[in-house]
UniProtKB/TrEMBL annotation:
Keywords: ATP-binding, Kinase, Nucleotide-binding, Transferase. GO terms for molecular function: kinase activity. It comes from the Bacteria. It comes from Streptomyces boetiae. The keyword Ribonucleoprotein does not apply. This is PfkB family carbohydrate kinase. It holds the Pfam family PfkB. Belongs to the carbohydrate kinase PfkB family. Residues 5-290 form the Carbohydrate kinase PfkB domain. The lineage of its organism: Bacteria, Bacillati, Actinomycetota, Actinomycetes, Kitasatosporales.
Length: 301
């Protein structure tokens, strides 16, 4: 297993605040960082290009990433502070977010052995960094590398729906694989069913758009297929990191195959594996993706 996935995006500190609690708990995370950790646990070579500040949240990020085993490249940044997300956890374990955000990477050196480049979340909407990330994706795709992205829509950082939708369309035009949640699509395309919204994104350029549907499972659309899979029934601790785990499993499959899965059966198998990985994460507190061995054991059960 040698095909590397390089992840570009933020590492931050989540302040997890459960319903009814009087204090928040600081946990290092961030969607791209979580995806890189998920890939590493699936034994996929992964590099994370990210930035953090010289501040207490940055020290927590540094310690966390150092302990994960992921190949982390801290890039030069014009932002002095580390991103912080306040994650409110409802009684059902679902999180809503607010952000203290800054993203200004000055360089994005992608390793030469990279097969797939992944980005998304705040890194593709927060300027001035978002424009540099988009330029990097465009350049990597021209060099023959697959590009994948997770929209991970955060209206708290860009409440203008039209501007956010335009940013997503620009990203979709540079991606081979695009992932979103049904909540992402409901906000971007009010009134449209998830599959219809996914096809609107597919028209912008990707070969595959995958959509997570929470407890209803997941769907994916390509030019010729629409596939749905159910979600495994599990006892949910919280949903933090579930979408990132799904994306890590999807990237692992794309790297293994040299591109998006082809054909209905292959696509359904990949989606089912991604949904299983996300389900395991939902049984745990916080973003805690499974190892390859744990996922294989879950699939056999």
């Amino acid at each position: 297993m040698t095909a590397r996935v390089t992840v570009i995006g933020e590492a931050l500190v989540d302040l997890l605040w459960p319903a009814g609690a009087r204090e928040a708990r600081a946990v290092a995370g961030g969607s791209p960082a979580n995806v890189a950790v998920g890939l590493h646990r699936l034994e996929r070579p992964a590099t994370l290009l990210t930035a953090w500040g010289e501040d207490p949240p940055g020290e927590l990020v540094r310690e966390h990433l150092a302990a994960t085993g992921v190949d982390v490249r801290r890039v030069a940044s014009g932002a002095e502070r580390t991103m912080v997300a306040l994650a409110y956890l409802g009684g059902d374990g679902v999180a809503s977010y607010d952000f203290l955000a800054a993203w200004d990477p000055r360089e994005l050196p992608v390793p030469a052995d990279t097969a797939v480049v992944h980005t998304g979340s705040l890194a593709v909407v927060l300027e001035p960094g978002a424009a540099r990330v988009l330029d990097a994706c465009r350049a990597q795709r021209r060099q023959g590398r697959a590009v994948a992205a997770d929209l991970n829509v955060r209206p708290a950082v860009q409440p203008d729906r039209d501007a956010y939708r335009a940013a997503c369309a620009r990203l979709a035009a540079e991606a081979d694989v695009l992932k979103a949640s049904d909540e992402d699509l409901a906000w971007l395309y009010p009134g449209r069913a998830p599959a219809e919204a996914a096809r609107a994104l597919l028209d912008a350029g990707p070969r595959l758009v995958a959509v997570t549907l929470g407890a209803a499972g997941a769907l994916a659309v390509t030019a010729g297929e629409e596939v749905r899979v159910p979600a495994p029934a599990v006892e949910v601790a919280d949903t933090v990191g579930a979408g990132d785990t799904f994306q890590a499993a999807l990237l692992d499959a794309v790297a293994a195959a040299g591109g998006p899965p082809q054909g209905r059966e292959a696509l359904a198998a990949v989606l089912a594996r991604c949904a299983a990985a996300a389900a395991i994460t939902c049984t745990r507190v916080g973003a805690d993706p499974p190892t390859r061995a744990e996922l294989e054991a879950f699939d056999r059960a």
